[in-house]
Design goal:
CATH architecture of the largest domain in chain A: 2-Layer Sandwich
Enzyme class (chains A, B): ligase
Largest sheet of chain A: 7 strands, mixed
Distance between the termini of chain A: 31 Å
Largest interface: A-B, 58 and 57 residues
EC number (chains A, B): 6.1.1.15
GO biological process, one term (chains A, B): prolyl-tRNA aminoacylation
Keywords (chains A, B): Aminoacyl-tRNA synthetase, ATP-binding, Ligase, Nucleotide-binding, Protein biosynthesis
Pfam family, one (chains A, B): ProRS-C_1
Strand content of chain A: 25-35%
Number of strands of chain A: 23
Radius of gyration of chain A: 25 Å
Oligomer: homodimer
Number of domains of chain A: 3
Helix content of chain A: 25-40%
CATH superfamily of the largest domain in chain A: Bira Bifunctional Protein, Domain 2
CATH class of the largest domain in chain A: Alpha Beta
Strand order of the largest sheet of chain A: 3-7-8-14-11-10-9
CATH topology of the largest domain in chain A: BirA Bifunctional Protein, domain 2
């Protein structure tokens, strides 16, 4: 729907690259006439559907999908004091229906604890109802006053996957926190996106939580992007909403809860981590099209090539591939450019010489060429796609490793956060955190991270010398 | 999450039956603390997902899925005068973000013309961009002041599938109206739901449309439920939003548009048309589980039966069936009751005698028994499911036929609408419509219906004797 005019900026100029690739690769249109609200183009939405299908399949193993209302009445919303303080400046309020003022203002959910937990109070009766693990994929709203940015900082988060679980004990809920972290790791592994998991400092935890684990990735400009959070809610909400179960002894007990979310920031990470100067680079699992066939229709054998390309299309479709045959009347080079921009993992070229050789040429989005015998094309394309998925995952892992630096001094830390994450030891005190954040002009991301890239053992605090914990420092989105 | 206490009311007592089956079969919970907003239970949501998957597959043949924002700024919303008059009393308004009053109030979309068409004005440039056929599945909002009812009359329509197309000419748009009607017919055919398609009278068309085609079904209480609409918008919106294309002669022309929608009323119809005194009856295509295996674990051969049931489960899962093995420690009869209430199409019983006979007993939700040889179980279950789908479709068609009556007099019409639809001829004048509606205490549904059940040729108007058109009269939801 848009003409490709001019070239994509280089990815080194990340902010411009990001803004341009969104419309050039037909991910989002930013011209909707309200700040912070954007339109998903069909191609962007198709990528979102693929990614969320992976997420749903992981969740569906032991969660159930459900759907709760968007509108939360003010009285329910205002029940949990700490939670409200965290959100009250960000909530959109519906005050009128038609020409009438509503008796009770309705909040557009910024997140759904206050919509879901009154129902959990009705649904949970006995220990046999536990654990309860539900999720929904919904639009949520934040009245962001900061600079908004497509997929990253939005007023309508269109694709919030939020899971809410209830358990008999605090320890069971803690195990669920770990399970959720592992689920998110697996989700991002399938997308080839490297992540760091850490425990957020007290002042940065979810309002109403006992603690928050966060999943971050490092963006090409060295800033970290939070792309998943997992919260241990303890019994804070169950006490507010009176969610109890009868235990084996017939006593009423408060449930212990967790909640965890992922939004379309996962798509922002997918675009940013893998993309390059020529456009999107999609892992096959998230690609609406795994392969595109470009027939080389030159010379007199055009009809023959077209027929061969159509036969190839049929064979691959029958084998279950998502594949498209590009028969447009434009030069092959223009087609290459078009599909590279949109991130299709593999291009299959077939021309007169390939027909004569009984072969098809597969070129990956990163330029790797493989000649596949026509008779083995179904297995051959699978193998090319699998290797390509490994290649971009490895490439992203190496990039992440390059951006994480163990530092010995505040000066080194200040240097390291300009291109990524600094790893140091910190005692946990807000005072020392203030020092670190001021000197580095960056934030305490979190502690207790386990990752092959973060090999620092706990050492004395870099500021005060008291016993410290391995801690990540970064500039954040 | 709920105990099954007491029995479902008889379906003849339809209104009570409907309200009770919603929670007993775990479709929706109506206890959410805002009028007209409901919670989807996982089982209800799983049915909704199946049905919408069918709808998406039909649309994806030549439409693309997309996603537009929920919030529409007042100035865009207020542009199309006729459209606004149709919705202004039903629109929810967001007036505050945090503690701030918004400069421009934001409407929660009641439908998305006013959100989508400003973008179409940017996207459509030339005839090469046409036809444009997009759809989205979204939540929409209506401040209903009438009696609300789950899935039928809602304040949050959680599952509005709306398609919006643009064409070069009025005639092309008209062909799209026909294509959309056929698409909806096919959708409902796959769900086994019989429909009547008719053209709504002028005063009942979509605000801003040239005309509206509607898809209705007849509910068990004889009232019709509108379960799909298709609107020819002409160039009414393209003139308001300035959506033009350059034709082959280089002239700017307004596009001609259509839009068409289906909501979770499709699920209300699915439940109501097929359900019976024992609970839901789901067509296999929309059933989260196609089959449930109930092992008959009596006597000494319990372990052997369980092993046989597990082997059966594996075979059916490997063959792609959605199937569950119910190993709960309760009586088989209680399991039958449980799964019948939830509408599972086929129950597979396997006990010691079946093992000895090398067979499995399949019992459909309507009671049909088939003994399938264990070696042919994969094909056997497919055949049972296919016959069951035909059986419930035929049953629903016959019920529909029974409820449509061609009438010769107003007295007969008044009688016919008490149990369904009266078919008569009407001249098209509002005066005669008023007479008909007053005498029958029912509404003009629409005209120009093509259906094997509606065989009346156009005759003189039943009121004034002027030339008339075959017209449907019914009490409506």
């Amino acid at each position: 729907m848009e003409e490709d005019t001019g070239a994509l900026p280089l990815k080194d100029d990340f902010s411009r690259w990001y803004n341009e690739i969104l419309w050039r690769a037909e991910i989002m249109d930013v011209r909707y006439p309200v700040k912070g609200l954007y339109v998903w183009y069909p191609h962007g939405f198709a990528i979102r559907k693929r990614a969320y299908q992976i997420l749903r399949e992981l969740l569906d193993r032991d969660h159930q999908e459900t759907l709760f209302p968007l509108l939360v009445p003010e009285n329910e919303f205002m029940k949990e004091a700490e939670h409200i303080r965290g959100f009250e400046n960000e909530v959109y309020w519906v005050t009128h229906g038609g020409r009438n003022r509503l008796d009770v203002p309705l909040a557009l959910r910024p997140t759904s604890e206050t919509a879901i937990y009154p129902m959990y109070a009705l649904w949970i009766r006995s220990h046999a109802d536990l654990p309860l693990k539900l999720y929904q994929v919904v639009n949520t709203f934040r009245y962001e006053t900061k600079h908004t940015r497509p997929l990253i900082r939005l007023r309508e988060i269109t694709s919030f996957k939020e899971a809410h679980t209830a358990h008999a004990t605090w320890e069971e809920a803690e195990r669920q926190v770990q399970a959720a972290v592992e689920l998110y790791r697996e989700f991002y592994r399938q997308l080839g996106i490297p992540v760091i998991v850490s425990r957020r400092p007290e002042w940065d935890k979810f309002p109403g939580a006992d603690y928050t684990m966060a999943v971050d990735t490092v963006m090409p400009d060295g800033k970290t992007l939070q792309i998943g959070t997992v919260h241990h809610l303890g019994s804070n909400f169950s006490k507010t909403y009176d969610i109890t179960y009868e235990d084996a002894n017939g006593e009423q007990q408060y449930v212990h809860q967790t909640c965890y979310g992922i939004s379309e920031r996962s798509i922002a990470a997918l675009i940013s981590v893998h993309g390059d100067d020529r456009g999107l680079v999609l892992p096959p699992a998230a690609a609406p099209l795994e392969a595109v066939i470009v027939p080389i229709l030159i010379g007199k054998r055009g009809q023959e090539v077209l027929a061969a390309a159509e036969a190839l299309l049929c064979d691959l479709q029958d084998a279950g591939y998502r594949v498209h045959l590009d028969t447009r009347d434009i030069r092959p080079g223009a087609k290459y450019y078009y599909w590279e921009l949109r991130g299709v993992p593999v291009r299959l070229e077939i021309g007169p010489r390939d027909i004569d050789a009984g072969a098809v040429v597969a070129v990956t989005r990163l330029g790797g060429r493989t000649t596949i015998g026509r008779g083995k094309v179904v297995e051959g394309v699978r193998s090319v796609l699998d290797r390509f998925a490994d290649e971009i995952r490895t490439r992203a892992d190496q990039e992440m490793a390059r951006r994480i630096r163990i530092v010995d001094s505040m000066e080194e830390a200040a240097e390291a956060v300009r291109s990524g994450v600094a790893v140091l030891s910190w005692c946990g005190s807000p005072g020392c955190a203030g020092s670190i954040e001021e000197t580095t002009d960056a934030s305490i991301l979190g502690s207790g991270s386990r990752s092959p890239h973060i090999t620092l053992a706990d050492q004395p605090c870099i500021v005060c010398g008291e016993p410290g914990t391995t801690t990540l420092i970064a500039r954040t989105y």
